[in-house]
């Protein structure tokens, strides 16, 4: 099983729908599960294709999820970016998410040399995602109480970080 990252294309729409319509996968995401392809195509055209760093998580070149890094645009915050990822639930527990996060941590600091810190905010109830980050060397920094609203409810988040210097360790 080869786990790779590559740009997501419109031709991947059927694979995209397999995780984007997955209620379990979308539980801790800001979006609701997609119901039809036209909304998904619009999202890919308007958000994914212009995103600075959005990749499909692939198993044997077939997209099974997505991972992204969003840079901070404010001058004082350019040293950090935010990691986000989603994986279709039928691929959970197989090491795929861990491998994908590790690939990003190994690449993003080379591709974006101004970046020194990669952050991830994880819902306190999303224990599996917290474990993925811990296995890839992210440091748990603390709980941010009442930090954001997810699907109409105020949530607590755990802040994780990975520094460019962590690669040398």
UniProtKB/TrEMBL annotation:
<feature type="domain" description="N-acetyltransferase">
    <location>
        <begin position="3"/>
        <end position="156"/>
    </location>
</feature>
<protein>
    <recommendedName>
        <fullName>N-acetyltransferase domain-containing protein</fullName>
    </recommendedName>
</protein>
<dbReference type="Pfam" id="PF13302">
    <property type="entry name" value="Acetyltransf_3"/>
</dbReference>
<dbReference type="InterPro" id="IPR016181">
    <property type="entry name" value="Acyl_CoA_acyltransferase"/>
</dbReference>
<dbReference type="InterPro" id="IPR000182">
    <property type="entry name" value="GNAT_dom"/>
</dbReference>
């Amino acid at each position: 099983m080869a786990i790779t990252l590559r740009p997501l294309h419109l031709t991947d729409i059927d694979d995209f729908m397999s995780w984007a319509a997955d209620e379990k996968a979308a539980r801790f995401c800001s979006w609701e599960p997609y119901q039809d392809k036209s909304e998904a195509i619009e999202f890919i055209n308007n958000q994914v294709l212009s995103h600075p760093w959005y990749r499909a998580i692939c198993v044997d070149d077939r997209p099974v999820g997505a991972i992204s890094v969003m840079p901070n645009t404010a001058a004082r915050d350019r040293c950090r970016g935010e990691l986000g990822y989603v994986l279709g639930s039928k691929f959970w527990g197989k090491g795929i998410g861990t491998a994908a996060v590790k690939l990003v941590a190994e690449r993003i600091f080379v591709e974006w040399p101004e970046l020194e810190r990669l952050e991830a905010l994880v819902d306190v109830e999303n224990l599996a995602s917290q474990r993925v980050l811990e296995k890839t060397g992210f440091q748990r920094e603390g709980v941010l109480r009442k930090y954001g609203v997810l699907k109409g409810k105020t949530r607590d988040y755990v802040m994780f970080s990975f520094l460019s210097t962590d690669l040398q360790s």
